[in-house]
Amino acid sequence: MDFKKFLPWIIGIGAILVIAFWVMGVKNSGLRFSQATEKEWGNVQTSYQRRNDLIGNLVNTVKGAADFEKSTLTAVIEARAKATAITIDPTNVSADQLAQFNQAQSGVSSSLSRLLVSVEKYPELKSNGNFLKLQDELASTENQILTARTRFNESVQNYNGYVLAMPQSWFLGNYKEKSYFQSVAGADKPVEVKF
Fold this sequence. Notes:
Blueprint: H1 7-63, H2 70-85, H3 95-118, H4 123-126, H5 129-163, H6 168-171
Helix pairs in contact: 1-2, 1-5, 2-3
């Protein structure tokens, strides 16, 4: 049997197998990057959910102060409700969706800040152990939110860098560019706090 006669076929089949395995590797890596981005978005949502849960406890603690401003509490409750109503599909995160989500969360932050500033007028509330503990938990949660958003953006950078680069983009046409989590308009200006 003449082995040389089959050599071109063996080389051709070998080349096809190498290319097929390489394409599978590209697709599997795209899937891993996509899943990592979705996981990090879940972490962002978990951090915001923690803040929303703490806000409920904070509002209930503050309600105990009999003469506390009801409009401030109402603003916090309404902002929290708006923020929890917005959901984003992590497989198809768009800049518009992130802006809408960010705006709702900014409303929560703003109303929460007003609540904490108005607490300064109530010394018995400021000395309440539960309130102080919740205030510390909220500060810790804000740090967790910052960390989760940063990690999400790092994950998006890795994902976009992989799926948009050549030659992966030829094989990953159904993997679209994801948007970064950005700050709310005006966040670059210093916050003015009035007592």
